[in-house]
Amino acid sequence: MQSDHIHSLVFYRKYRPQLFRDVVGQAVIKQTLQNAILLERISHGYLFAGVRGTGKTTMARLFAKTLNCLDPQKGKIGIEPCNKCEQCKELNLNRSLDLVEIDAASNRGIDEIRELREGVKFNPMKSRYKVFIIDEVHMLTTYAFNALLKTLEEPPEHTIFILATTDPDKVPATILSRVQRFDFRKLGIREIVENLSSIQKQENLSIDEGAMKLIAYLADGSVRDAQSILSQVVAFSKDKTITEGEVEEIVGSVNLEKVTAFLKLLAEGDLKGAISCVNNLQDQEYQIQPLIRFSVELLEKILVLQIDPKSADRFSQEFSQDQLKDLEMLAKNMDSRQAKLFARGFLEALPQIKKSVLPTLPVELVIMEILGEK
């Protein structure tokens, strides 16, 4: 387990973007922040919202670095930090005194925010701006939010706050009204695969396409999770050649073919076969949650194909020709009403699978309720 942690840390740290252009996805946010720097229209407060691993903290650090860079590089597609000046080097080495990162999950009380307010009063040590990044800001207590609000209402000119959160609905409206909000979207399969391909080349690895797509699916829109999964697989792999089967074995997750086979049983109305499939995968130590999450994703595509068969072209980047043919066949053979019921039922079952003593039970109940109606 120790080697797993080391590899994960190395991959994540090693390939953390040091330039805006290296950030995976989030093109609109990158361009907006770069324009703000170029036009010198800097706000005192920003909110970066989105699921984990989509680049919120990375973008915040890049924004801070570029703002304080002594020799920013202006190009056709925006502005970038030089990564050579003293300010850039200190930030890259996590030694900058003018970048303060706070984890609100473990520093959520009013005392910590009061300390922050005291720190705000002082001018930057070396830089143009003093930047405070508060991660998981929604975890702050009510009193802490009130204290933060007072600072946001009358911020010093040299201070910028970047609040990051995975749950923006828990951030008070009084805070939201005083910051510029950017919503980070989940990354697509193609974007994550391209990032993994880049790492593959730099690490001199050999990863088959099926393995990369499976890792991308497992990452669920998070490039950081994808890199961590790849690190885990590399740490346990016997050599630098990684196959889809190895990813399945190491991570304990099913591949697309197994999910498709499961959905075929549902489409055929095979109650006994579908229940046996779920139990057999459990006996083989596969995780049930990824099976059902993948099933929901494929059911969504099946429903789209049932409405518009021509939409298959949209999925060509995610699936091979054979996989796409299987998906189109499922769309033809599965009753649309049942497809909706399975999608809804599995969505409701997903959080229960994690909590259940018997992970297969919530899934079995959904299958029995729908196919048992016949």
List the helices and strands and how they pair.
Layout: H1 2-14, H2 27-38, E1 45-49, H3 56-68, E2 73-75, E3 78-80, H4 86-92, E4 99-103, H5 110-120, E5 130-135, H6 142-153, E6 159-165, H7 173-176, E7 180-183, H8 189-203, E8 206-207, H9 209-219, H10 223-236, E9 241-242, H11 244-251, H12 256-267, H13 271-283, H14 288-307, H15 321-333, H16 336-355, H17 360-371
Parallel strand pairs: 1-6, 1-7, 4-5, 5-6, 8-9
Antiparallel strand pairs: 2-3
Helix pairs in contact: 1-10, 2-3, 5-6, 8-9, 9-10, 9-11, 10-11, 12-13, 12-14, 12-15, 13-17, 14-15, 14-16, 16-17
Distance between the termini: 48 Å
Number of strands: 9
What best-fitting shape do the alpha-carbon axes yield? elongated
Number of helices: 17
- CATH homologous superfamily of the largest domain, by name? P-loop containing nucleotide triphosphate hydrolases
Broad CATH class of the largest domain: Alpha Beta
The CATH topology of the largest domain: Rossmann fold
Overall structural domain count:
3
Q: Determine the structural class based on helices, strands and strand pairing.
A: alpha/beta
Q: Roughly how many Å is the radius of gyration? A: 24 Å
The parts where pLDDT drops under 50 for at least 5 residues are 1-9
Strand content: 5-15%
On the 0-100 scale, what is the average pLDDT?
88
Element pattern in H and E: HHEHEEHEHEHEHEHEHHEHHHHHHH
Biggest sheet architecture: 5 strands, parallel
Specify the CATH architecture of the largest domain.
3-Layer(aba) Sandwich
- Helix content bin: 55-70%
Strand order of the largest sheet: 4-5-6-1-7
